[in-house]
Amino acid sequence: MRKTSRLLSLSALLFCFYLCFSSLCLAEQPSRLSRGQDIYIPAYSHIYHGNKESPLLLSVTLSIRNIDPKNSIEITTVDYYETEGALVKKYISKPLALGPLGSERFVVPQKDNTGGSGANFIVTWKALEPTNPPIVETVMIGTQSQLGISFTSRGQPLE
To answer: What is 34-158's CATH number?
Structure first.
């Protein structure tokens, strides 16, 4: 009985160690400091649902968050593209400054389905000093009858 109890305790301890170690290995690595990037961000002006693949229109909010507590960044491009890659809209015509810990948002209304299910944004930013890269993501929300959905997509820096 004592052997079984010790074996169970040891197994539990090893399992806990595995969980702790694996979560450390899977934790998101901190971003390297940068002076600028082009970032690709998935967006969905609609998704399909049901047996007939009916489109559910979504509003899209692009959020750009300067997570650096000391340095400002400058947003130079916020371009919205449709599924086939054609430019739909340029959201800014001149650079936009974001102070330390500042944020900005851009909205594609729910009734605007020009982007399609494969829409995306390209955001370009730059900084004078090496800076923590911003968090750039989209939040999609849609409702229709009693159906409601929301989800996010995180941006990916382009090389």
So the answer is: 2.60.290.11
